[in-house]
Amino acid sequence: MSKGLTWRFSLIALFIIVSLLYLTPTLVSPLPSWWSGVLPKDKIHLGLDLQGGTHLVLDVETQKAVEGTLDLIGTDLEDVFNSKTLRYKKIGRIGGDRVGMTFYDKGTAEAAQKLIKDKYPNMELVPPYDDGGFVSIQLKMGDKEIQERKDRAVAQALETIRNRIDQFGVSEPVIAREGQTHIVVQLPGIKDPKRAIELIGRTARLEFKLVDETVNAATATPGTIPEDDEILVEKRTDPTTGAVTETPLVVKKKAMITGDLLTDAQVRIDSQFNQPYVAIEFNSTGARLFDQVTAANVGKRFAIVLDNTIYSAPVIRERISGGSAQISGSFTEKEASDLAIVLRAGSLPAPVDIVQNLTVGPSLGQDSINKGLIAGLVGVALVVIFMAIYYKMAGLVADFGMVLNVLYLMGALAALGATLTLPGIAAIVLLIGMSVDSNVLIFERIREEQRLGKPPKAALDSGYDKAFLTIMDSHVTTLITAAVLFQFGTGPVKGFAVSLSLGVIINLFTALVGTKAIFDFALLRLRVKRLSI
Amino acid sequence: MEFIGKTTIDFIGKKNISFVISSIIAILGIIGIIQIARGAANMGIDFSGGTAVQLKFAQPVPIQEARAALAKHNLKEANLQEIKEGNKLLIKVGKTAAGQQGKAADAIENAFRQELPGNQFVVESSSEIGPAIGDKLRQDTLVAVMISMVGIVIYIAWRFDFQFGIGALVATMHDVLAMFAVFFVLNKEVNLLFITAVLTIAGYSLTDTVVVFDRIRENLHKNTKDSLTSIFNVSINEVLSRTIITSLTTFLAAGSLFFFGGEVIHDFALALLIGIAVGTYSSVFVASPIVAVWEGRTKASKA
């Protein structure tokens, strides 16, 4: 028996040491220089509700990505037909899954059909049919490919957002996919959440479009402009008054150059006007295109369009070769640097919608920690005092078990890298109350056995034996709810479930091994004759 | 020290009284849940979608003034709540009131900045939840509650007997309904934290019930001569002191959360306190009497 006792005390001591080791980084700051690399260095992670920060759930509009792809295929086919001098009446996306083409005669349609089959073998081709005197064909994207495309859009969006956040500079961000179309972004301790949200949510589709000067923009309406034109708005903010002026401009629908041809974007300051601008660099394809387009359109205006808003529309004074250009607008330095970030990180494959935004300020977080700690301390104190009065020495043993519980639980949270949330603290406080339950069950049994006249050692052993099954049952039922909470819970609720389930498991150990070892020690080694219970 | 020595209270005999009390509580709870399902209760934006902003002002803001300021900016339907300490104001706007999704928080801040220019404030927390997310959360929550209930019944039916499983389930549902009833009557906000508290209490109340059941089973094996009612009564009396002690310690801990835990978990702690109280009551006055009545009937029909 005494051998078992040594073994049990060693185990208890070992767990204490391990817990303390894992808790040291949280309690001691900074870590002493001799703290080696093998020892744990991570502090207990605090949830956003405790340290402040922003939790976002973004919904990727994946259907838009599919439509974007179809639009690209449409533009591509236009180019192909033009280069082969196949005359067409109209090419455009129809609905959410197909591109329609209308030709003047059957021969051209059949020639086009052959071309398309070679170019897009994976897509379904609806054979030519008569369309009010013209001949139409349709190119349809299969369901499987649509699904793949949507999937890729989310993965790509995730990557782009990660790049943007990395460049924005947030320590320990969490960026993860959730379900089919959702992306969860957590930005702990962020100071300017609005700016970050704007940065993340911006599609950042950069396009260079020629301004159509043959149309008077001031009087243009969507019905009166040519079919390949569109009306966009140029926004200018007056730096002194902050007033925004909007000027409509008619531009060609087709983008001459797009943002995916960029290699770099940097903020520079215009030395003449002391105004920030964004300098961009094209890759070789982009540089060649830019060279060609500017050469062919000297004297015309070139609109720089970001997410369908015109940033500036300068006149091309001369051919620009070398592959660099600049975007100037009336922006502040912050705006310019954010623009540079989104341009560098690339555009989102589809727009994102913020469906959930939880922001907690740092002061509220600190307040919550303080109050949680006070609540915890008061809770512990009350329970400790109560148990000591009600069960005397045995109550103190139960109190010791409870303190072990809290220590082990904190250690386990640190070791597992779990996140401590405010409900997590609540779970710990609640566990303080519940952790003595096992001891109460045991003590009440012991009292019953003693009333039957059993000697201390026998009363103790059969008390533990008889309470064992009850304790198991009660712990398993709590574990079932904790597991369900963990499964469906998000954020703070999950934190609560983690603390609760860890606490329940640890409690099994402290109640059945921890306190029993102390009782056995008192009876066997200290030769205590009477249980103080 | 001992509060109570050996007791011989006839718990099962009081079943008629307790069943009436419990039925009233349960009916209130069901009304509350129906109102929640209809969206007529005080729903947190977790489930209904919308925007909640908590602001901390430099000087106190009379609630009438705040309401007037918001009304000027088309935010008439905002729900205002004052937090006593520290000049704090919690403003909630439903998904329909503010019009454009994602702009309500800005609109609220703007309204105060313009209407109360002398009173500086900081945004302590802000939450925006789209209606789709709210629906999903509500659905997930329902599923979670169902799964945990089923899991618990299966476990208890396996460990004890089917009747016991049902008794435990009814007692647990009773406690869940009671928590809904109180929150509904007090018009407290039903949000994710509340649901968390409900599930926690479901686990807690079950623990309580299981302890009583364990003793009943033990005594049923030991003693086959006495009537069922007396075995049930003896068992409940035997574990009564444990029931009271544990409820008391848990109540003390939850009470310290309630009084010192801060505004964020104030209602959560309240839900726990209610749950602990009804959980204790139900394990004694609901779970065991149901099983006793049922077992009694099966025995009578067999005879």
How would you explain this protein's 3D organization?
The complex is a heterodimer of chains A (533) and B (303). Helix content of chain A is 52%, strand content 22%. Chain A has 533 residues and is of the alpha+beta class. In chain A, the strands form five sheets. In chain A, strands 11-10-16-15-9-12 form a six-stranded mixed beta sheet. A four-stranded antiparallel beta sheet of chain A has the order 7-8-2-18. In chain A, strand 10 (229-237) and strand 11 form a beta hairpin. Chain A is elongated. The model of chain A has no long low-confidence stretch (mean pLDDT 86). Chain B has 303 residues and is an alpha+beta fold. Chain B folds into two domains: 12-42 and 133-302, Multidrug efflux transporter AcrB transmembrane domain (Multidrug efflux transporter AcrB transmembrane fold, Up-down Bundle); 50-129, Alpha-Beta Plaits (2-Layer Sandwich), CATH 3.30.70. Chain B has nine helices and four strands. A four-stranded antiparallel beta sheet of chain B has the order 2-3-1-4. Classes of the chains: A alpha+beta (533), B alpha+beta (303). At the A-B interface, strand 18, helix 9, helix 10, helix 11 and helix 12 of A face strand 4, helix 5, helix 7, helix 8 and helix 9 of B. Strand 18 (352-360) of chain A pairs antiparallel with strand 4 of chain B, so a sheet runs across the interface.
